[in-house]
Specification:
The complex is a heterodimer of chains A (771) and B (643). Chain A is an alpha/beta fold. Chain A contains 24 helices and 31 strands. The chains are: A alpha/beta (771), B alpha/beta (643).
Chain lengths: 771, 643
């Protein structure tokens, strides 16, 4: 097809449907923009991107004008430049742009354009305001006199986040950004990111630094499994802000309120700065050598008296992969026990175990961006907007812009339930019945993907038997979901292919998490929603590195990479690498079992790396009193953390660790992307990098576990964990790689089972193959 | 001929074809005030030497500034700056360089703005700067304050102008794009009280005057209107009207059809209670009994009528004015004014042998649809023939399929391209399996034992152009043939029967088409307190025209009750004047082509939908609607008249 046009006299190709701006970008011709937001339809307010068309008596905006074959486009003619200059002149004149004190100075699109177009001596007419007007969130300040009314913030809030908390009200120059729905503002700061001037500035504290004075360190947000890429802005060993870029990371610049504004804890005065040892019942400051030897002595004594299995270790889900790996190696070698687990036990691991049993690999089967290609999206028992904000953004973008159909299955009303085409609201506790009901309906009416079922799966007949009797009317009366709604949902989910299924790992209020996950897997398999772009199972990890912690062996029954600890050849491989003569063969205690054993007096020593079991908001326990009792019964408790938590207050020794911004390492996101965190500042006082603490402690115990750098740890991991074999620091310097990555040339695997389940068919779960 | 035009640049911006005749420019407003000059999207027209063109430019730019929505920089900032300069000149403080600055700003705005306001507003200013430059120069040199003239102002758009009720289409479409659905619906309700109904069955003149057509395809305006109306129902939201202070006295309305309902709705918004006298047991008039449920579900219509009732209307069903009660009696009951909004329910004659014979199996389209609307199956058999080419004929053929007729033939005198029915209706009827027979004239209904057996027809061909230049169909002699049928339904048009409602009213003039004579602006009849509109004033016309008539009726009833007098308002004159000025120019060349097809609603599968009267179209999804709304070019045009 003849799709060429003249761009400044040069003939260039384009794809039909591209705008002039896109064509210019593709051919490295710069057209300046101000209001343009790449992932929304053109706002076309600023007209800075106007270009000249031969034979047209008007200029046209490059961002909103479709390229036509044979067009003769001039992007930098005198007429174009004059128009741009004139627009900028009017803009400056109508505002009050106090660049010297503006937080955005040096990083302002308007400032850059004025510089580029050489404007001088423009008088400003808008007087500055005395008091800033109210904004949707107090975390952001709005400066009307700097606002050019470009609508970027409004579009970002509405079209990227699908919130719509702000809008511009008032006609013409009276327009102001107004919080039209302040109640629904999530304070995510998407508007702040979008603002091309200093009209929106961070309001945590002002006058902290000038933009060009801060060091910007690329890192990964540690707060949930989204794996958002961001930059930590540091000035004088203090984090002064978080920035992000639309073209970096799966989050495409989006962050949530925690990611963007939740950094003040790093400089909190209550951070632990020195090791503490309980002496005569009172926690007293101590030196590092003293503390480490104190711990080594006590753990060795317990081991000598009661055996290695009377000691256990737990991590939180926010330690790095390297720390997780070192921790389990420490427990398995220096202590000699498989009693190692994490707070992912009752959360993310439940979903991973189900995936592993049915499909083979314990991880999300696709990538976040695959959601753009989904035709149906089922969100089951997950308040995704809160748990995994960026996944909620993406799926809503798929719904709003790609017309994906949204189904929500949740007993509680969530923000997504309110926006769903069909919201299935089962009686609490009947979620699994409902999923099985959908499945039964799909199989009964042959709505599923027959070809996929017959070639890729096993166990269909057994599954059918297990679902016998689950007719829509039975399911309807059991779950309270109207029969017609159930049928409609079944037909939609099965037929609008491919379909993606998201499920949280928190699953608040659901007792049979594993059963629900298995049913969701069955549902996905029956419809063949696997291995194709847009289909897949999306377990959303609670906790920043829940996936990585599990991947790297902080599990009582698996070595790193989910390798079987009962198999001799595997144990031998680890013994060689870890340079030890024996490794414990029997699975250790799970987190739950540890507390039971402690309460029973059988577990005596416990080492907590960041885990805070007494935070029952984060780790709901059926019997909170029992957990506290268990901790009390321990004869020796070590807590390594950055704050004096409730649990730390019960410890015998407390080691001050470092937060994510104070160390190097990697995190693995829900979509299995292994990404870097980088040290941006030093930990406070004598607090230390957790990797170093673990290595030092191992040495005090007489074990050797020394690495020159976190990169060296990852090298060891790559050598011993086939999923990670091709991943190294140099390779993930700029962008992460998704495991499995079998060799150093492999690009990583963002979509699992793309080649199908050739050797081992995916197994329908029927209750026989329990996790 | 003296056209009265002293100077005109009108039409040169959008090409000669857009230029109306100069004789069209003479215009008289109420109170015998003559149009002295006009400024708008296509230039300047001057008809009187006393007009101060500089002051007119000032007023024009001030209006433009207030109208500028602020969504693009050149218009938002340019109108403000230009307005400031023009004000300065008129105040006697003009500066050297002002003219050049105005010109630069006008070109910037014209060249680089986003919507029609930005693109067309600078045009008359540029004309003025060019042709009246000496006057601008002396105004700056003289430093005299200028006298402020008398102006009328109105904003329009091609779609808005084409709409009989002048809905602010760009505004409500833009509100959809911006996700402001409630505001969008509020804008619609300013000029249309039945958005869900009109959003389904309007004949959509707006879409046929949509400027986007010149780029790729017209905006799906009708579907967008339906979308916002449906969203309100989906959200189970009630529209919020702030009720005005209740006014004294009730108004009687004859007919709960579109005109009557609209009148009641807007009277309610103006504070008046009303009583509607309706002959049928069902509200909606022709919208209820003339349009089948698969196009306009009755539930939806009833809900919109409920809203009218909430505005202060009481509907008395099964009251046939003229039989059960007379207009005099109504007035004697103390109603302060009456609005006659009777529909055109009388079928026109086919002039075909046997149509008055009362054969079993013969029924007029109006009667047929009315009976179906009341749940009957009025005709039996397997084969049906419908005669006609309009929307009623489409409703009859498609309803027949739904009633179980297997073979449905449509017979039309002319060809497909002359059919007045909505192309979408024709397409959907074809999908459903209706056989179209073109250039055929019915001549005789063939009956046996008093039952219809067939329709005898003649083939037609197009004749020579007549005096009006139009080619009329002529029968081909001897081409007679029969189409077998058990049911025969003529649907070739309706007439009014307002004489039945108003048997002997003094002061109310009836035309020979049995319609009432009303004032073109105020909708008042010859009788002081009686107003009228809709089909009974225009003859069978569109739903949206009837809604407009009801709206205008309410406006002037209010004026009459407030002021005891009735005179046409300037705004309505402006509407008429603007309509003469060619708001839509189908020959306009846009600088580039677009590639975005208009949004299409999902329709039920034809085989499935003919099994019931369930609604065929499912409406736009939200993403579809937002995307569709963003295709709007917002072709606003500003008009200023000097008096």
């Amino acid at each position: 097809m003849d799709s060429t046009l003249l761009l400044n006299g040069r003939e260039v190709d384009f794809r039909p449907g591209q705008t002039i701006l896109e064509v210019a970008e593709a051919h490295a011709v710069r057209i300046p923009t101000l209001c343009h937001l790449a992932r929304t339809g053109p706002t076309a307010t600023c007209r800075i991107c106007v270009v000249e068309l031969l034979d047209s008596d008007i200029l046209v905006p490059a961002c909103a004008t479709p390229a036509n074959a044979g067009m003769d486009v001039r992007t930098d003619s005198k007429r174009v430049k004059t128009a741009r200059q004139e627009i900028l002149r009017l803009l400056i004149a109508r505002g009050h742009h106090d660049c010297p004190v503006c937080d955005q100075g040096g990083e302002c699109t308007l400032q850059d354009l004025v510089h580029e177009y050489g404007l001088e001596h423009v008088p400003m007419t808008e007087p500055p305001r005395d008091s800033p007007p109210e904004y949707a969130t107090s975390l952001i300040r709005y400066w009307p006199e700097r606002c050019v009314l470009c609508y970027r913030c409004v579009s970002a809030c509405r079209d990227y986040k699908h919130i719509g908390a702000i809008d511009i009200q008032g006609a013409g120059n009276q327009g102001r950004v107004v919080a039209v729905n302040p109640d629904i503002c999530e304070a995510c700061g998407e508007c702040l990111l979008a603002c091309p001037t200093g009209a929106l500035t961070e309001n945590l504290s002002r006058f902290k630094y000038r933009t060009w004075l801060a060091d910007r360190v690329s890192s990964t947000c540690p707060f949930c499994g989204c794996g958002c890429q961001m930059e930590i802005n540091v000035h004088k060993n203090r984090v002064v802000g978080i920035t992000s870029h639309e073209d970096v990371g799966s989050n495409q610049g989006s962050l949530c309120v925690q990611g963007r504004f939740g950094y003040e804890f790093i400089a909190d005065a209550d951070r632990l700065t020195r090791p503490l040892i309980r002496k005569n019942g009172v926690l007293q400051e101590a030196g590092w050598e003293e503390a480490l030897h104190y711990i080594a002595d006590h753990l060795q004594t317990i081991r000598n008296d009661f055996g290695a299995d009377s000691i256990a270790g737990l991590t939180s889900t926010s330690c790095t992969n390297e720390e997780a790996y070192l921790f389990q190696r420490f427990m398995r070698t220096a202590i000699g026990t498989n009693n190692v687990d994490s707070s992912a036990r009752d959360g993310h691991w439940k979903t991973l175990a189900g995936l592993k049993n049915s499909l083979g690999l314990p991880g999300m089967t696709a990538s976040i961006h695959d959601l753009y290609k989904a035709r149906t999206i089922l969100v089951a028992a997950s308040d995704t907007t809160r748990e995994h904000p960026v996944y909620a953004n993406t799926l809503l973008e798929a719904v709003h812009q790609q017309e994906a159909r949204l189904l929500v299955l949740d007993a509680e009303s969530t923000s997504l339930a309110q926006r769903a085409e069909i919201w299935l609201q089962p009686q609490p506790g009947t979620e699994t019945d409902l999923v099985n009901g959908l499945l039964a309906c799909i199989l009964e009416e042959n709505l599923g993907d027959q070809a996929f079922i017959s070639t890729q799966t096993s166990g269909l007949e057994a599954l059918k038997t297990s679902l016998a009797g689950l007719t829509p009317d039975v399911v309807s009366s059991r779950t309270g979901v109207p029969e017609e709604k159930l049928r409609k949902a079944a037909a939609l989910y099965a037929q609008a292919r491919p379909g993606a299924t998201l499920f949280g790992s928190e699953m608040k209020g659901i007792s049979q998490k594993t059963a629900l996950v298995q049913s969701l897997i069955n549902l996905t398999l029956a419809c063949g929603h696997l291995g194709r772009e847009g289909g897949g199972l999306y377990p959303l990890a609670a906790g920043g590195n829940a996936q990585g912690v599990c991947d790297h062996g902080v599990l009582p029954d698996f070595f790193p990479g989910y390798q079987d600890l009962s198999r001799n050849e595997i144990r031998q491989k680890f013994m060689n690498t870890w340079n030890v003569n024996r490794l414990p063969e029997t699975p250790g205690l799970t987190r739950t079992a540890m507390f039971e054993q402690a309460q029973a007096g059988k577990l005596r020593g416990l080492y907590l790396l960041g885990d805070n079991p007494l935070d029952f908001d984060l780790h709901p326990a059926p019997d909170p009193g029992a957990v506290e009792q268990a901790l009390r019964k321990l004869s020796f408790l070590v807590v390594q953390d950055i704050f004096l938590t409730e649990t730390a207050l019960m410890a015998d020794v407390i080691l001050p660790g470092a937060c994510f911004a104070e160390k190097n390492g990697t995190l693995t996101s829900s979509e299995r992307l292994v990404q870097r965190v980088r040290k941006a500042l030093n930990p406070p006082g004598e607090a230390r990098d957790d990797q170093r603490i673990l290595m030092d402690l191992a040495r005090s115990m007489g074990a050797s576990m020394d690495f020159a750098s976190p990169g060296a740890i990852l090298e060891e991991i790559a050598g011993i964990n086939p999923l990670m074999a091709g991943i190294s620091y140099p390779r993930i310097d700029r962008r992460g790689i998704a495991w499995p990555c079998p060799n150093a040339r492999h690009p990583g695997t963002s979509r699992l089972y793309a080649e199908g389940f050739q050797n081992t068919p995916a197994a329908f779960f029927t209750g026989a193959n329990t996790a | 001929m003296d056209t009265g035009v002293l100077f005109s640049t009108w039409g040169h911006w959008s090409g000669e074809s857009a230029k109306p005749q100069h004789s069209q420019f003479q215009f008289v407003f109420g109170g015998n005030r003559k149009l002295k000059a006009f400024m708008g999207w296509d230039g300047i027209i001057v008809l009187d030497t006393s007009v101060d063109i500089i002051d007119m430019c000032r007023e024009y730019m001030l209006r433009a500034k207030n109208e500028s929505c602020g969504q693009c920089f050149p218009c938002r900032l340019g109108t403000e700056e230009m307005s400031r300069i023009l004000q300065r000149i008129c105040d006697g403080f003009g500066k050297q360089g002002d003219i050049e600055r105005l010109k630069d700003l006008a070109y910037l705005m014209k060249d680089s703005s986003k919507c029609g306001i930005g693109e067309t507003t600078p045009r008359p200013l540029l004309d003025a700067l060019q042709h009246y430059r000496d006057r601008f120069e002396s105004a700056i040199a003289d430093k005299q304050r200028r006298f402020q003239g008398n102006y009328l102002y109105k904003i329009t758009a091609p779609c808005t102008d084409a709409c009989p009720s002048h809905l602010d289409i760009p505004k409500y479409v833009e509100n959809i794009r911006l996700g402001r659905l409630e505001e969008s619906l509020a804008v619609i309700r300013e000029n249309c009280p039945l958005p869900g109904t009109i959003g389904r069955v309007c004949v959509r003149p707006c879409e046929f005057h949509c400027r986007r057509t010149l780029m790729d395809e017209a905006i799906s305006i009708k579907s967008l209107k339906r979308f916002v109306a449906d969203q309100e129902i989906a959200q189970q939201a009630e529209p919020t009207f702030s009720p005005p202070p209740r006014k004294q006295g009730r108004v009687a309305i004859i007919g709960a059809g579109p005109a009557g309902l609209s009148c009641a709705f807007y009277l309610g918004r103006l504070g008046y209670q009303s009583t509607i006298f309706e002959a049928l047991p069902e509200p909606g008039g022709m919208a209820a009994v003339g349009i089948p449920d698969y196009r306009l579900p009755r539930e939806l219509l009833r809900r919109e009528v409920e809203m009218v009732e909430k505005m202060g209307a009481e509907i008395r069903y099964n009251v046939r004015v003229g039989q059960d009660i007379t207009l005099e009696q109504i007035k004697d009951e103390g109603y302060r004014a009456v609005f006659v909004g009777v529909g055109a329910h009388e079928p026109s004659k086919m002039r075909c042998e046997g149509e008055d014979a009362g054969y079993e199996g013969f029924m007029t389209g109006v009667e047929y649809l009315r009976r179906i609307a009341f749940g009957q199956k009025p005709l039996q058999g397997k084969k049906a023939v419908v005669v006609g080419g309009g929307n009623v004929a489409m409703d009859c053929v498609r309803s027949s399929l739904r009633l179980g007729f297997d073979e449905v033939n449509l017979v039309y005198r002319r060809t497909m391209s002359e059919m007045p029915a909505d192309p979408v209706e024709i397409e959907e009827a074809q999908e459903e399996g209706v056989t179209f027979n073109f250039q055929i004239q019915p001549v005789r209904i063939v009956a046996e034992n008093g039952k219809v057996r067939a329709l005898e027809c003649l083939r037609m061909q197009m004749g020579e152009p007549d005096a009006s230049g139009r080619r009329r169909p002529e029968p081909i002699n001897g081409s007679n043939f029969e189409i077998e049928c058990e049911a025969m339904i003529p649907a070739i048009g309706q007439t009014c029967s307002v004489d039945l409602v108003l048997p002997d009213e003094r002061g109310i003039e009836l035309t020979r088409w049995k319609t009432i004579e009303v004032d073109e602006y105020t909708f008042r009849t010859g009788q002081l307190r009686v107003f009228g509109g809709g089909d009974c004033a225009t003859g069978p016309a569109t739903l949206i025209e009837a809604l407009n008539a009801g709206k205008k009726g309410a406006k002037y009833i209010n004026q009459f009750l407030d002021q005891s007098t009735c005179y046409s308002e300037d705004d309505d004159h402006m509407e008429k004047l603007i309509a003469r000025m060619q708001v839509y120019n189908s020959d306009e060349k846009l600088p580039y082509h677009g590639f975005e097809k208009r949004a299409r609603q999902q329709a039920l599968d034809p085989a499935r939908r003919i099994k019931s009267f369930a609604e065929v179209d499912s409406g736009l999804t939200r993403p579809q609607a937002v995307k569709e709304a963003s295709r709007c070019l917002r072709c606003y045009r500003i008009a200023l008249a000097a008096l």
